[in-house]
Amino acid sequence: MNEVRPPARRSPRRRVASARSHSHERCEGHGEHLDRVNLTPGRRAILDMLCAAGKPLGAYEMIDLLVDADGRRPAPISVYRALDYLVEHGLVHRLASRNAFMACGSHHHGADPVVFLICDACGRVREFASPSVRADLDAISAEAGFRRRSQMLELLGVCADCANAPHNHST
Ligand SMILES: [Zn+2]
Ligand SMILES: [Zn+2]
After folding, report:
1. Which H/E stretch holds residue 92?
2. What's the CATH superfamily of 114-164?
């Protein structure tokens, strides 16, 4: 899938520039959403960065990547506010098990439950939305009289690439 380079090798400015250049090919699914959101330059920079990363990033990793040419880093509160906005509008998901954020990689409807398959070995995450999962969650919630707020299921494991790799193996 996406090649993710280790951070802190290239200059911050170049890194952000390359994040922008990749955003369209990797986040095409956002096209219809983008008409309805107010993407300020700060929100756009974070969304582009997550699209380019192709895997979840923690808020402080993002702050490090947003350091400008003079070494100034954005205030954490501004990054968290931008993330809140992107999460609320369905462009970004928060992964509780990783305390990290990832760009939505699917065309799912905002109300659909999403299943995240999180690889312990390489850190990549794939997401799936499934009507049958929704039906099951609805049934379970109804039976328990539970008003479900969260629509996220995070499954930990090993992705196909890592499971098949001769080295990087964890069984
Ligand atoms: Zn999504
Ligand atoms: Zn993997």
Report:
1. strand 92-95
2. Ferric-uptake regulator, C-terminal dimerisarion domain (3.30.1490.190)
